[in-house]
Amino acid sequence: MASLFIGMRYLIPTNCSDGGSSADPIMVFIVLSSLFNAVAYTGGPFPLGYIGLGNISIGYSGLGDLFVFLYFGIVATVSVPYLYVTKTACISPLEDTTKLPQLLQYPFLCSIPIGFLATNIIVVNNLRDRHTDIHAGKRTMAVRFGATFAKMEYLLLVVASYVFCVYFYLLEAESVRWTTLLPLLSLPMSIPQLKAVAFGGKDGQMLNEHVGGAAKLQLVYCILMTAGCLIANTR
Questions:
Q1: Phi and psi dihedrals of 96, rounded to 5?
Q2: How far apart, in whole angstroms, are the C-alpha atoms of residue 73 and residue 170?
Q3: What is the pLDDT of residues 152-173, one digit of tens each?
Q4: pTM here?
Q5: How far, CA to CA in Å, does 109 sit from each of 74, 143, 233?
Q6: Which of 18, 179, 216, 221 would you call most buried, defined as having the most Cβ atoms within 10 angstroms of its Cβ?
Q7: Each residue of 25-59: pLDDT tens digit?
């Protein structure tokens, strides 16, 4: 994220009076908070989960799902169009509170199902590790509410991701509506994952392959969504 923030200044031509060099407080906050989240989750020399601050640690307080959705979904998806729009159109995020939200509305909507599928990676991970997490003092969602809750969370996030395809279909112009349905081609990939995680009896180390399976599903879904956007923009 830091590399993206710095590099975009030089990769995107700008007509802004300041040359696009002024610091964007929103991106500064996102970069700093992203770095903090990455280090303070359970890593770094002073991980929050190991220095007596487990109650405010992301990884130890059950907030991991939320922060994955926010930073690997919304922030990761919207940051690039946000930087592009603010630099090329010279829109100040703090001064123009009307045009910028309109321009970023569609990227924001796209970020929601992407965030859902990203969250499922940690859902499977926490479902697998819930027994050892109890002894480690990690109060993940799977520890707090049990295996059944984690399985239903996984199911709902997958279903909601594909429901968004139908929602996008209703939003788009008739000539390009079909492009919004391309992510549905990844649906067959989700079936074995759902069978194993949400409906199956797999547990513990048997879920290892499905952590990667959740990541692969998100990757293919995102590639198909990107292809749909590119096709729609060329028509």
A1: -100, 100
A2: 22
A3: 999 999 999 999 998 888 877 6
A4: 0.83
A5: 9, 30, 17
A6: 221
A7: 888 888 888 877 776 665 555 554 444 455 556 66
